[in-house]
Amino acid sequence: MDSPFDGGFLVGAGSFPRSDYPRPGRRPSSNGFNAARPGIDRQIYSVEFITSTERCTGMSINEIKTTVFGFMGTQPSRLGQPGATPVCSFRLGSTPAYYDAAAGAWKRKPTTWLTVKAFRTLAVNALACLHKGDPVMVSGSLVTEEWTSDGQPHSSLVLVADGIGHDLARGQDAFTRIQSGAASIDEGADGSDPWTTPLASSSPETAAASGSSAAEKTSAEAPIAG
């Protein structure tokens, strides 16, 4: 039997588009899949396929794109020197929950921690809007950073963010649009420090609305269901 990965690229959640998905009761096939536990294996091995044409547009080959739901473990911190490209970093914690039918209650698995880095406008806005404890969603690319300290090699898994947002399933938030080109966020091309140059809102009405109520700017975390 052909591998279900023939002609596709494994990138994330989805479903098998082929009819040779392993069925319950079948012996393990040559591709290593074992569907002896229906439902469980179907979830574990659900994937999405990208054709070879799509693979070459907008994504590097073997680039790991992912979205993580979690909470801010630290305040965002500024990295780099004044006048350089804005960069910020924070720790992101993700704690999966599952329902224990025997106990009749929700339980939590151990927390997984990641370092998140954001660049340019995303870094500036993250530093201004995100706070320790906020429930967030972070989408980006997983990369490995390597360095040497005291002659010893070290490495760390980092999520380079493409987008960050508050998890609205946990609370409420307000949005202020930034006027396009309002401030330079590249490498200090105009001589100013992008970290200290305010980003203008799109209109006076938007700015007034965003400052009219402090409650609208506060993420009120809701309790987890169950």
From TrEMBL:
CDD domains: SSB_OBF (cd04496). Pfam families: SSB (PF00436). Keywords: DNA-binding. GO terms for molecular function: single-stranded DNA binding. InterPro entries: NA-bd_OB-fold (IPR012340), Primosome_PriB/ssb (IPR000424). It comes from Bifidobacterium asteroides. This is Single-stranded DNA-binding protein. Residues 197-226 have a biased composition (Low complexity).
